[in-house]
Amino acid sequence: MKNKLAIAIAQLNPVVGDIAGNAEKIVAAWESAADQGADIILYSELVLSGYPPEDLVMKPSFMRHLRDAVDDICKRTASRKNGPALLLTTPWEINGIRHNAVLLIDGGTIETVRAKNDLPNYGVFDEKRVFAAGPMPDVVDFHGIKLGVPICEDVWTPRVVAHLAARGAEMMLVPNGSPFEAGKDGLRRKLIRDRVLECGVPMIYCNQVGGQDELVFDGGTFGLNFDGTLAVALPGFAETVQLSHWSRDGDGKWYCDDAKPDAHYPSGLDAIYQALVLGLRDYVNKNRFPGVVIGMSGGIDSALSAAVAVDALGAERVRLVMMPSPYTSADSLEDAQICADMLKTGIESINIGPAMEAFGTMLAPAFAGRDPDITEENIQARSRGIILMGISNKFGHMVLTTGNKSEMSVGYATLYGDMCGGYSVLKDLYKTTVFALCSWRNLHRPQGALGPEGMVIPQRIITKPPSAELRPDQKDEDSLPPYDVLDDILGQMIEGERSVAEIVASGHDEAIVRKVWRLLDRAEYKRRQAPPGVKITPRAFGRDRRYPITNGFTNLVS
Fold it and tell me: Which of 25, 45, 405, 431 is catalytic?
């Protein structure tokens, strides 16, 4: 019976659907673990397919490629004597039924297969759509050590872990695909500590890292001793393969010999900013764009979007374009130029005045007898959208939209104008968080950032009143409540699902609450047409929050 166990933990950044590329990452991590003397290596959830694979697993050809890749991994890992076993995670068919599974591969042979029992079907998760639930899992016998290998959701409630403990599990090795939300890392650690204390055995929680469409996986892998103390911690937002050594004491309990609970995991605004950077970087790189193009207004949203883009991709891959109209202030032009200088990107200017005149001439007969209104404002925004999409088509750079969650909530955005583009890095950030992140970034350069040290957003951009500048002397607060009021109401409506009466009782004016509720309901059709963006909050627009466009229930009576 082994009383020592060297466990390698592979916190990797797979690409969904890139089976061959993911297999190379898996084998490279295995070779690193072998060089370090590991006995076994643990991967995050569905590492071979990438997570979440969604409907890809419904393609028979995709499942066939996964089987072929597993066969190849078995052959490659069999060639090295005394190499570590793999807890390889992949979609897998058992008796013709598709599961979210983990395979124990030892000496090039699949020794054991375990399937995920508790399939999440809420928020961004819909695993019941594509997988069948496995039976309550049994322990995995590895060289005389009984390992529990619950998969992600299996540990979020006590049931599966208690079953494995009752079956004699001495240690829990848990593959995970847990996406980032602000403050979620503390929740994970509390939850896993609860499971550890309930079952009395140590647990290693291995999480994926990387961006996948609107989801960001933040890593932050950790392990706890049987008494709930922190034994292993991997950094956030970075790929890592780390070895940990474990011993069995006289009571049969396993503990970590070389506890290193000192890896950096960012918190607060630091974590949010790093999630934005990683989400954008992976979306651009995994989709093979040469870079991004951003319309720079001189306002705070485009400034923060540009700073994140430079930190994610480097200044040479970020193209900034000013598109002034007759209503653009001299201050905005100056602020956009200063911001570009701080970010070291350069900036170009394309005047939309001629486009406004051309559209005005073309539409004059159709608009005869009508006074100018929001229509002409939207034509300005759509003219800018055409310019940015033209640059994107010509040079291949993806248009990065700059709208925030406050604006998207109430429809304060123009379809086919400032909403057009491939990705929206601020999509799940309320305006008050945008302000806070700008001030934070001016004081901090996050780990791994490619942008410059020091101030990158002019202070005047942060302090001046926000404006779309589509008509003379326009301010956002002409149309909307102050952002601190608006964001608190929206947070209660969207994340809290609170009624009008409940929000009014929290201290807000009823007329304002009802106005915001109407705007939120009516803007659903716009949000359906918005590009994806980084999920930060518990209720991001898109796959996380799904409301009908045609909707007769407004709840304004309660």
Answer: 45
- Residue 152 appears among annotated catalytic residues: yes
- Which residues have a Cβ under 8 Å from the Cβ of 550 and sit 6 or more positions away? none
pLDDT score recorded for residue 131: 96
Closest by CA position to 280, among listed 457, 453, 535, 51: 535
Q: Where are the domains of the chain?
A: 4-256, 269-555
Query: Per residue in 180-230, pLDDT tens?
Result: 999 887 889 999 999 999 999 999 999 999 999 999 999 999 999 999 999
Structure tokens at 198: 């309930």
CB 227 within 8 A of CB 22: no
Catalytic residue from among 25, 74, 127, 152: 152
CB 392 within 8 A of CB 398: yes
Average pLDDT, integer, range 116-130: 91
What is the C-alpha to C-alpha distance for residues 23 and 50, in angstroms, rounded to an integer?
10
**Is 116 an active-site residue?**
yes
Query: How far is the first Cα of the chain from the last one, in angstroms, to the nearest whole number?
Result: 65
Tell whether 349 is in a known binding site.
no
Least confident stretch, 50-59, 256-265, 272-281, 343-352? 256-265
Classify residue 442 as exposed, middle or buried by CB count within 10 Å of its CB (0-12, 13-18, 19+).
middle
- Strands 230-233 and 222-224, by their bridges, are antiparallel
Options 116, 405, 427, 535, the catalytic residue: 116
Q: Does the fold of domain 269-555 match that of domain 4-256?
A: no
298 is an annotated ligand-binding site residue: yes
Question: Do residues 531 and 555 touch, judged by C-beta distance below 8 A?
Answer: no
Fold of 4-256: Nitrilase/N-carbamoyl-D-aminoacid amidohydrolase (3.60.110)
pLDDT of residue 558: 54
Say whether 240 sits in a helix, a strand or coil. Answer: strand
Task: Please indicate if the annotation marks 295 as binding a ligand.
Answer: yes
Q: CATH for 269-555?
A: 3.40.50.620
301 is in an annotated binding site: yes
Q: Give the side-chain half-sphere CA count within 13 A for 292.
A: 31
100 marked among binding-site residues: no
Write out pLDDT tens, residues 468-498: 656 666 666 667 899 999 999 999 999 999 9
